[in-house]
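Hi, here's the filled form for the chain we discussed.

Project: internal
Contact: R.S.
Residues: 249
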Amino acid sequence: MNNMRAFYNAFPIWNAVRTELSWTHYRIICRLDAENLRNQYVIHAVEAGWDTRTLQRNITSQYIGRVLDASKQETTRAQQLVKDPYIFEFLGLPIDSNISENKIETALINHLQQFLMELGKGFAFVARQQHIVTDTSDFFIDLVFYNYYLKCFVLIDLKTDELTHGAIGQMDMYVRMYNDLKKGEDDNPTIGIILCTEKDETIVKYSILAENEKLFASKYRLYLPKEDELKELIEQDRIRFELDNDLKE
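And the returned structure, exactly as it came back:
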């Protein structure tokens, strides 16, 4: 009876209920206090085909709060799909500073379905360690995806330490090369995401990240942080994201 009452209070207009979701989906979503948040989780769950376990995990990990820009737009932008931080607790890896990039990368591929769910809607896997050949050099890009909402390739470079100017310059080069050598005529410009353990605000502010809307640096965690820690991480990055947007405007 309590569940039915909560459902009615949360979704009083029966015709607005999405039939793609089960009663268990709605029972989980009803526990959220904010109407706007409930509606967003309904939309995400339908569009991404979340089962109830994924829905519960994403609510616990504050999935929507971690999206850089959760506001509604007429057209989908990269900021509406990129998160900060990313949570990879599903890999089951030890929280060890000595763990290698290759081991994390291998674990992500071994848990590709969950990784795609964490990345968000519209992502499709393209390649691991994709070989790019220029006139003078060979390069290998850690992970390549395609997003059919953004209609562009998304390059991911994985780092096991703090963000550096070198990592930013490398990703900028990868994106430029991919646009020149791989992007099709119907594709939008390529996006690059650097996954790192920490970010220095000075490096973010005084680098190409501050002005390039196609380059992103996001933190990641190999564990699910406690609620307070996760809220603090999200708040720090939202403040930085809003300041960066103000500077670009």
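Let me know if anything looks off before we file it.
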